[in-house]
Specification:
It is a single chain. By secondary structure, the chain is an alpha/beta fold. It folds into two domains: 2-63, Phospho-2-dehydro-3-deoxyheptonate aldolase, domain 1 (Alpha-Beta Plaits, 2-Layer Sandwich); 83-333, TIM Barrel (Alpha-Beta Barrel). 34% of the residues lie in helices and 18% in strands. The chain is built from eleven helices and 14 strands. The protein has helices spanning 11-23, 51-54, 108-121, 145-158, 172-178, 192-199, 215-227, 254-262, 271-275, 281-290, 317-333, and strands at residues 2-5, 27-32, 37-42, 59-63, 83-84, 90-91, 97-101, 125-127, 161-165, 181-184, 204-208, 233-237, 267-269, 295-299. The strands form three sheets. The chain has an eight-stranded parallel barrel, surrounded by seven helices. The protein has a four-stranded antiparallel sheet with strand order 2-3-1-4. Helix 7 links the parallel strand 11 and strand 12 (233-237). The longest helix is centred in the C-terminal third of the chain and has 17 residues, at 317-333. It is elongated, with a radius of gyration of 21 Å. The two termini are 38 Å apart. It binds phosphoenolpyruvate and manganese (II) ion. The site of phosphoenolpyruvate has 9 residues, from loops.
Length: 338
């Protein structure tokens, strides 16, 4: 439920509501609006007596939260959330952000060359996996901590915010030390222990939709991160598994709009995992900006045919330069910038 305070409610009256929530064994989230404050009651409140709140001084009304994802829901927080990765990389504001870089960190030369190229093209974030969740155990698994060090070096040289995947709860602290944003991959979207561990550290989370998750399941799982204490969650549509085989995954752009409709969290699109083919990435990136995505995470490699992972879906830095110019015009056409 949401306890809506009167516009002139005093701080002590809001505190009395918070105290009662805690007495009931539930959690609270106070949201101070420009006009009035509300206290969201988080937890299973089905058997709790709403009228107890209605009689408290300063309370205007009590309304149920219908969505099962209470912290992510726009019913609780109508204003959009912006997630700060760095001074230049804020996802969820008017400016559409581009995070670009290789699927995996392969070597110092590869990551530094790519970082400088994507920075020059106008990206504000650098992606690159140091820990790769691979289908086959014999495939390249990533450079591990050495890869994280190379990413940190790339940040020192370029100022780009670093986004990199964490695949197990035991690595969360280490990845968090080096990264500005931890990526949770599609294969781990319902690894609830990992979500919880990521919720207990301070860095932002780029949380990908599970390849077989409905939006309802996806947003409920996002609650594990939010409820553990980390409000800085960026949702990422990267396509789902269907019978269709002309693309690696089936990428729904309607889900971007629907996620923004249901949740206040920013939404980015991954057109690389979403399509699987470099020739599809520019047009689908254009479409993502046009439909209102808050950002893009794009795989870029200086030599895609020799990439250790996902070369087929990686664009070159030159292609990224063209893409950025076109996406900028599209962003401006819908009243945003890029
Ligand atoms: C990736 O970004 O390289 C990746 C593995 O993503 P996903 O989890 O969406 O497959
Ligand atoms: Mn990849």
């Amino acid at each position: 439920m949401i306890v809506v305070m009167k516009p002139d409610a005093a701080a002590g009256q809001i505190q009395a509501v918070v105290d009662l929530v805690r007495e009931m064994g539930l959690k609270d989230q106070v949201i101070q609006g420009t006009e009035l404050s509300v206290v969201a009651v988080i937890g299973d409140d089905r058997k709790k007596d709403r009228t107890l709140f209605e009689t408290l001084p300063g309370v205007e009304k009590v309304v149920p939260i219908l969505a099962p994802y209470k912290r992510a829901s726009r019913e609780v927080q109508p204003e959009r959330t912006a997630v700060v990765l760095s001074d230049a990389c804020i996802i969820g504001g008017n400016k559409v952000m581009v995070i670009a870089g290789p699927c995996s960190v392969e070597s110092e030369e590869q990551i530094l060359t790519t970082a400088h190229a994507v920075k020059k093209a106008g990206a504000t974030g650098l992606r690159g996996g140091a820990f790769k969740p691979r289908t086959n155990p014999y495939s390249f698994q990533g450079l591990g901590e050495e890869g994280l060090k190379l990413l940190a070096k790339a940040r020192d040289e370029t100022g780009l915010a670093i986004v990199t995947e964490v695949i197990t709860p035991t690595d969360v602290d280490m990845v968090s030390e080096y990264a500005d944003c931890l990526q949770i991959g599609t294969r781990n979207a319902q690894n609830f222990k990992l979500l919880d561990a990521c919720g207990r550290q301070p860095k932002a989370i780029l949380y990908k939709r599970g390849m077989s998750n409905t939006l309802d399941e996806y947003l409920q799982a996002a609650e594990y991160i939010l409820d553990a204490g980390n409000p800085n969650v960026i949702l990422c549509e990267r396509g789902i598994r269907t019978f269709e085989d002309h693309t690696r995954n089936t990428l729904s752009l309607a889900s971007v709009t629907e996620l923004q409709h249901r949740a206040h969290l920013p939404v980015v699109v991954d057109p690389s995992q979403g399509t699987g083919y470099a020739h599809l990435v520019p047009a689908i990136s254009d479409a993502s900006v046009a439909c209102g995505a808050d950002g893009l995470i794009i795989e870029v490699h200086p030599d895609p045919s020799h990439a250790l992972t996902d070369g087929a879906q990686s664009v070159t830095p030159d292609v990224l330069v063209d893409m950025m110019q076109r996406m900028k015009r599209i962003a401006e056409a819908i009243g945003r910038s890029l």
